[in-house]
């Protein structure tokens, strides 16, 4: 079963996460397939830019709790997005949760439709947004990051733009793609290297620590209770 739908138009390859039945949860299968598609895009001289989007009403619900990828595989995917020698544009028209925000943080440009909403829900199942901090914290306003990391609150497109997660509304997408089509392959590649340098420094410095921290949290008793409560559609035992 294919979980990433691939289409091409005038030098732009669109990769759509296509597992609406699981709300595009980040399973081992989906992460592997997306990584393979990105590798092909990176090697194809006909590809000027990549759009990362989704089918269904959810861009991604975060990690698939039944078949999660290894933290190392997810780190590799985030780094691949950041290092891809082609611009990556995230296009969101629905819900984004937890690890899905990490994918958006790895994109170079993000546009969102009016119906999009976002939440960092990790604290509500007993863990923390550890690995996705590699792409989020270098880009987000620190006060906003603290609020949404700690509360798990849902927020909309205006807040996402103000905090640096989203670049613009979805209406800007055609103009952005036209601008990318006008850029030379070398110019786009080297310009991207400039704007991603600090994010890649974070990977070099923090990736191993955050992977280990994530593994420890997911193996904890609180996380087991949180994930069980989520799957059983009940409040966890710590809820006041």
The total beta strand count reads 10
Radius of gyration, in Å, reads: 17 Å
Task: Report the CATH architecture of the domain at 4-169.
Answer: Alpha-Beta Complex
* CATH class categorisation of the domain at 4-169: Alpha Beta
In order across it, which strands form the biggest sheet? 1-2-3-5-7-10
CATH topology of the domain at 4-169: 2-enoyl-CoA Hydratase, Chain A, domain 1
Count the helices. How many? Answer: 9
Short description:
With 240 residues, the protein is of the alpha/beta class. Helix content is 47%, strand content 17%.
Verbal overview:
This protein has 240 residues and is of the alpha/beta class. It has a domain of 166 residues: 2-enoyl-CoA Hydratase, Chain A, domain 1. It is 47% helix and 17% strand. A 6-stranded mixed sheet has the order 1-2-3-5-7-10, sandwiched between helices. It has a 4-stranded mixed sheet with strand order 4-6-8-9. Helix 1 runs parallel beside helix 2 and helix 2 packs antiparallel against helix 8. The longest helix has 34 residues. The protein is globular, with a radius of gyration of 17 Å.
Topology:
Blueprint: E1 4-9, E2 12-17, H1 28-43, E3 49-54, E4 58-60, H2 71-83, E5 88-92, E6 95-97, H3 99-106, E7 109-112, E8 117-119, H4 133-136, H5 142-151, E9 154-156, H6 157-163, E10 168-169, H7 173-182, H8 185-218, H9 221-231
Parallel strand pairs: 2-3, 3-5, 4-6, 5-7, 6-8, 7-10
Antiparallel strand pairs: 1-2, 8-9
